[in-house]
Fold:
Amino acid sequence: MQTILPLPTLQSWDCHTCGTCCKEYLVTLSLGEANRILEQGWTKEELGGLDPLRVKKGLFSKKTVLNHDAEGSCVFLDKGGRCRIHAKHGYESKPLPCKLFPFILIPTGGGWSVGMRYACPSASASLGRPMPEHLVDLRKFAEELLVRDAIPINATGTCAEVKPPQVEGNSFLEWEKVLAMAKGLTIPLLDRKVPFSLRMFRLFHLASDLRKAKLSNLEATKIEELCTILAKHLPATVTASQRDQTTKPNWVGRVLFRQLAAICLRKDHGPNRGVAEQGRLALFGAAWAFVKGRGPLPKMHKWLPDADFRLGEEPVENLPLEVERIFERYYLMKVGSLQFCGPTFFNMPFWEGIDLTLLIYSVQMWTYRILKSNLGETEAAQKALSIIDDHYGFNRVLGTFRQRLAYRILGATNQIERLVAWYGK
Ligand code: SF4
Structure:
């Protein structure tokens, strides 16, 4: 039986048949899943005149995906919002990605940790049954995933053969040490005595201290102890006034930050697609607007209001408690589950993934500032998470050499700390 590790935060979920996943995502199929759908014998008449599958060609690869109609919905989604495969052949006949969404199973040595896609509205609002009630399904999905993705298994059938993510450069640590580091980094995020923005600032500092330590010589339990000791000193050494006095990011930092924001806001597919539907020239104009960072904000995503770039620079003094809890849940989940590095995150090394997660936080807060100009605060927070999380671990651009170079430049010039301080408040 597959082991599912406990979640680092309280989270609930159930499908509320909003159809978001079936309208907004291209589902990539394994050969077995594609064949199974073909064997089901779907006719064009049943699917609005369309083929069930199509081949998507990239520069160096091609993959088979579920076909979509002109409005961007999966051809199997019927007018009533139900899945035709599910209705005709039963739940088990659906492709694994459809059953798994919005969960992400992350191999972590002998067991699996669970991440979530907050692009699902029910996940970002934590609606439904608590996670322990999903355990039976998650174990089953893990079994299916091992076969579907040909994940290496050991003699007892677990994913223990999967290599841990690099820590930095070419160095590796054992799984239990990597898990201990991730758990340790969640300590400042749990400190509800201080605003969440300060907790993220402290996460940056804890990560910086831990990064300098020689962890390869320590046992996993000692790493946990070290994290606890370092975290204990954070309230005295990393204060709100220190955060407030942090220098504003320089222009290189702000340009690279806005470039990351443009990537994370962009929606090219489905009913919420933004300027992408106007063609390449419009996208080019939008990219240039993000470099300048002045004037009207291009609508990269339909949820963005008519706004000016200036709106993203206006500080948010105090986040309402409900919004704090939403961000807290999100980052506990991302950091504690190891979703930020390794095989589910473009094989990114541990510390680089933490850097990017801190940058993503800055982008989310910037997006929140813009969205809350015409939405309630809770809705603005949930939508900011949904928009950005669409890309977290899924938009390959975030893992390209060019982007990774940008994160390194931001790290080497102390811009990550400044961006977290500046946009966090
Ligand atoms: S196959 Fe069914 S569940 Fe999967 S995307 Fe299409 S409609 Fe949704």
Observations:
- Residues 350-371 form the longest helix (22 residues).
- The first strand starts at residue 3 and ends at 4.
- The chain is about 45% helix and 10% strand.
- Residues 22, 27, 66, 74, 76-77, 83, 85, 94, 98 surround iron/sulfur cluster (CB under 6 Å).
